[in-house]
Amino acid sequence: MIVSLTREERGTKSAMRVLTIVLLLALGCGTGGGAGAGSAPAGRGPTSGPHGDAHEVGPKVSLVLGDKQVDIGLDEVPHDGTTASLRDVWRAGMPTDDPMLLHFDLYDLHGFHIGTRAACTRLLNGSDFAAARIDVRTHDVTYDDQLSINDCYRMRAIVRIVGMR
Questions:
Q1: Domain boundaries in the chain?
Q2: Rounded mean pLDDT, 72-79
Q3: Cβ-contact 163, 99 below 8 angstroms
Q4: pLDDT for res 146
């Protein structure tokens, strides 16, 4: 069956494709807060995000507070062999700045961060940040299953942590 479309119909069809792609990206990237591809059941690990499960990260994480930036190797931070506390990571790189008095935005390898996710209504506070664990190899951030942390805060391949007063 051959279908012939007028110029106006082709324009409308093209506009609908663009709208469909935008909606799929918004839901699939975990930015929509729904049950899209970027959400995970409570108590589980981080969401996969828009770029799939595989990710390559280096050994360091950048810590930023105002105009200060420090790169810290996760192997330099006390860890249990697999994960380290984000509070310990912060203290290793910014020892004079108490993480309990700050708010945090986490950035992944692809530039996605908590502040851009609609489901994350606020940045991490010091208590939530202190409860987070980062995998020293993959840089995936997880939380204790007993905490009521929204799934949007569970992220993969974290390469930058920005603290704010």
A1: 41-164
A2: 93
A3: yes
A4: 73
